[in-house]
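Notes to self, Protein O-mannosyl-transferase 1:
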Amino acid sequence: MPSHHHKKNRDPHRSKHSHRHHVTPKQQDRTASTSEETRGVDDDDNSSLSVEREDTSSLSGNGSEVGSVESRDQGDGASAIEPSLDSAAVKWVGPVRAPLLSIKTEINIPLVLLTVVAMATRMWRLEYPNSVVFDEMHFGRFASMYIRRTFFFDVHPPLGKLIIAFGAYLGDFSGNFTWERIGADYPSAVPVWYLRLFPALFGSLLVPLTYQTTVELGYNHWTATLAGGMVLFENSLVTQSRFLLIDSFLLFFILATLLCLLKFWRLKHSPFSPSWWAWLAGTGAMLACACSVKYVGVFTVLLVGGMIFHELWTLIGDKRLTVHDLTSHFLARAGLLAVLPVLLYLLLFNLHLELANRSGPHDEMMTSAFQATLEGGLSRITKSQPVSIAYGSQITLRHTHGMFLGRPCWLHSHLSTYPVRYHDNRGSSAQQQVTCYSFKDINNWWIVKDPRRTTLYVDDPPKLIHHGDIIQLVHGTSSRALNSHNVAAPVSPYSQEVTCYIDYNISLPAQNLWRVELVDSADEGDTWKSIQSHIRLVHVNTTAALKVSGLQLPDWGFHQLEVVSDRLIQQDATVWNVEEHKYTQVDQADVVGNNEETFNQATYEDTMDDQPLMGFLGKFAELQWKMLSTNKELQQEHKYSSSPAEWPLMERGVAYWLHPRTNAQIHFMGNPLVWWSGVVGILGYVALLGVFLVRRRRACFDMDDESWQRYILTGELVLGGWVLHYVPFFLMERTLFLHHYLPALVFKILLLAVMVENIHTHVLRWPVHRHVFSALCAVWVTCIYFTYRKFAPLTYGNSDLSADEVTDLKWLESWDLLIQVL
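result:
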């Protein structure tokens, strides 16, 4: 943006009273440079000056004006009126009362047009296709579960799904649709328009947000219109906005974060004003929302955090600020950019857990303590069971943290034995198999026995088990004790075999003593409790802990999960908890050989009804840990998965939907011209930055300080945003798709647009070169629009394409467009 200079007064009759002129802040704003510093100052001074005529003949040639005015170019087509006060005496007349109600109307025609067209492109025939498209299968199912208040598990935070569920609520959705497969037709009872409404609305708002963000970066309205237009006619953004997907929410909150941050910086000369606080709080709130849709929002947190750190470092070097001022600046940013987002993030998870508070199909993903808080599930079984484990207790032991083959598992045994020889010709003990079984079964029940006694019943009062006590575990149906010894495990030979001991009258004595160690407890007085206590069972003879290896046994083990004992005790795989629990009081002779139906319930006082349930923070911590750990495990191969190296040039798309009888299809892919031009924009910015730095080093200044600072800010915020939202995906081992590139794409579009202005303003010096460049840009923008139109059939899926038409759209061999044999 060009700088402006005050014009020198050339009037030979300059008033002798000019040295007494007092100029209000408002008048200073009109005559000062339109630099970033001045533009950030709030003007709330309502006082005024009265200009009185002293000698009209000395003011102007015709004496018709009291104060002449000068119009100066603003660089973007606007002009500011600049009073010339050199020939006028200025007198203070006191404050002027502002009107009680004033309305100022300004219409930004390009912004309005972009927004209207964005709404049209995103919401046109929103109900089509009237069938499940790609990941609508997942997010639609989650909306159904919210409506039925059923607990579910997903790797993404809840905000995006909550917004979709709100649309379902507005459409009176009953939640009874099953969302079984992609392509399934929606029945009339499913309010498809309402379900897709909010993704389309947020996707439409990306266009004006892009426009405003470009303006706040300091670029002109033509550049902002270009940036908004590229987002408007970007096919991938249109596609992702028209269905039950959450990426449009993520992109909206990322851009809203940038806009709030830039608005906040514009007020740097009015710190702690109401507007300053509002935009700072808005930045923190939008950060929280971005992180609450997808964890990609964390990259936005890193971007904003780095920029704020740089800003604070600059403030520290400002000698005009006292220590008190610096402390206030730091605390304000810490409170609204750290504490506020965390509180909002917790609040949204609390809302999620309050709405989804009933037992559902995903309960088993969570620990027993978590499940006990859900209505109608495990709590029905455990609500009246005793809490404290005693000698003689019947228990089922669940592996606490493991999810194997998508399910939890319970310590299990059956009458089958290990083979005498394994496939690698190693010998075994041929003892009874012990496994971890992924279904509830009578063979999951065990009896806690006191090694010093032969009886298996619970005393009255019960003899409770504490941290560090030694026990034996007797299998309920086979009456054989849990055992381990220094024999290699069947599938994990580096660990020890775990069995139920059979006395073969050979020199292989029983080693069936186990020490109970409560996790996170060193107090010998702590009691072992059902559901609440997480424990490790440490084999006394070998000091190895009972563990699930996560590997499946062969056919002879019925493909159940291998249980071993491992000398590496401190690991999640060795943690267990009691889920179901009963007290029994029978003679030992009655127990052996009988199943659990013969057991009688003993009397006890403490039940689960009297115990506090897991609180919100405990549930939040567990859910957060599960989400992060499960996200890392999403490594399944997919036909349309892609690597980050393929994204910038859009080498692969993703098939979203195919009509069952024609070649009409929705294929997730972008506008090739936008994607490929964006790569040129990134390379161009870096190249120009290098050239400018070298030339400035040699005292050749191609732009004024304000334009240089804007160019550097663009690199830090926009190029830095692209890097932070793209490069980390190279470090991820999970399955990735092209739509993971969309946050980086938005930054790439912003950078491309501002590079056009920088080249036009600071690289091309001759008017003829600028005219030619402008003409080429007009052709390029026209091509972007027609490219959008060409690929619109793949964006909307509303055209019955022939095989030749599909082939014509396949610009790259790597694009897997679908062609049916009709």
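- The domain at 386-603 is CATH 2.80.10.50 (Trefoil (Acidic Fibroblast Growth Factor, subunit A)).
- Confidence is low (pLDDT under 50) at residues 1-93, 588-603.
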